[in-house]
Amino acid sequence: MPSTVTAAPRIIPRLLRTSAITLTLCLSHYGWSATLPADLKWESNNADPVFADPAAKRGGTFRGFMTSFPLTLRVYGPDSNGGFAGYVRETNLPLLSTHPVTGNPMPMLANEWAFGADHKTLYLRINPKARWSDGQPVTADDWLFTLKLLRSKEINDPWYNNYYSTQISDVTKFDDHTLAISSGSAK
Predict the structure, then answer these.
(1) Residues 13 and 73 sit within 8 Å (Cβ to Cβ)
(2) Calpha distance 187→16 (Å, rounded)
(3) Is the pLDDT of residue 82 over 50?
(4) Vertex 119 angle, CA 175 and 150, to 5°
């Protein structure tokens, strides 16, 4: 009995990946394909200074405290904004971040990016070396799934449903490591 229970969490990601791949193949078979604009100017930021002390000792243990016991470990939905939310949400790596010293965009999971001429679309190339903890590659399908999840009424979180339906109008996959995120308004 325990093997059935522990196998389920491993099967679901495989099914999701397989479904996403099958859907993409079916859509491309029937003539659907997304193409990147030819005039994109790809950027990266490998020139900004390292902001950590190179003499700092790596590793160790971080100790902290919370003012309240977590009601849940979920990231979205009921009771997800408790004292533990900051710890759970910090485990998510973004595609880009902001350099703390220069304020410039800096690579995280994406190693290149380009801004669309419409001032609404950000094109990103995911670092092909990026892997999930199970060793599977991080792909554009992960962002397609995340957008669908955050818009889903199943997570029972009206704020996220609204935000990801109005602020993010679409996520477009070009290939396994290239995607575009389109905003609901010009930025």
Answers:
(1) no
(2) 32
(3) yes
(4) 60
